[in-house]
Structures are given as structure tokens and as C-alpha cells.
């Protein structure tokens, strides 16, 4: 639990959820926020999602290697 890579992976997954909720909320509400930031929020979600997947894969790989 105290592994820094594990903590980073959890934080990255939390960032994905936060950006997804903000993006979906803006989409549902519509208006100026969605018009201005909707596409940017979904791109940011994809970036955070990629980072989270890389961190989880690195954690699993290193854990199986005994590192």
C-alpha cells in the first residue's frame, strides 16, 4: 500500500474520474462551459487515462518481477 508507484496509479485513476465527471456534467448541462471546454475535457481524460494505464501496467510488471 505504501508503494509510491501504487499511490501514483491511484491518483491517476482518481484524476480520470474527476475529469470524466466534470466533462459529463458540462455535457449534460450544456451551455457556454460545454461549448468552450467539452472537447478539451475529453482530451484531458484520454491523457490521464493513458497515464493511469501505463502506471498500472508498470506497477503490475514491477510487482511480478519482485521490484
From TrEMBL:
Pfam families: HIG_1_N (PF04588). Keywords: Membrane, Transmembrane, Transmembrane helix. The chain crosses the membrane at residues 6-25, 46-62. The keyword Membrane applies. Residues 1-67 form the HIG1 domain. The keyword Cell membrane does not apply. This is Twin transmembrane helix small protein. It comes from Phaeobacter gallaeciensis.
Amino acid at each position: 500500500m505504501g508503494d509510491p508507484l501504487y499511490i501514483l496509479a491511484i491518483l491517476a485513476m482518481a484524476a480520470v474520474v474527476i475529469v470524466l465527471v466534470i466533462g459529463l456534467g458540462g455535457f449534460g448541462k450544456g451551455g457556454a462551459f460545454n461549448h468552450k471546454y467539452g472537447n478539451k475535457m475529453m482530451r484531458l481524460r484520454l491523457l490521464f487515462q493513458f497515464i493511469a494505464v501505463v502506471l498500472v501496467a508498470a506497477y503490475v510488471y514491477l510487482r511480478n518481477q519482485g521490484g
